[in-house]
Amino acid sequence: VDFFNRINLMYGTISDACTKESCPTMSGGSKYEYLWQDGAEYKKPTRLSAPDYMVLLMDWIELRINDEAIFPTST
Hints:
The protein starts with a helix and ends in a 10-residue tail after the last helix. The protein has helices spanning 2-14, 50-65. The protein is mainly α. Helices cover 39% and strands 0% of the residues. Keywords: Metal-binding, Zinc. InterPro entries: MOB_kinase_act_fam, MOB_kinase_act_sf. Zn(2+) binds at residues 18, 23. Pfam families: Mob1_phocein (PF03637).
């Protein structure tokens, strides 16, 4: 959870510089492109802008972190 919160804060500091226009794809340099697939809205690997990809990723992680079936908070 702490790692997620730190990454979320770091992303918040660069999100203004990385727009849909300036970052049209989510990539790791010129050799790697990340495609989004969640099995629900995006059934096939889909190219997204970096900001859209990051929003979906952070939402996906947050849903799992808060899922009591995955990470129970009570015993």
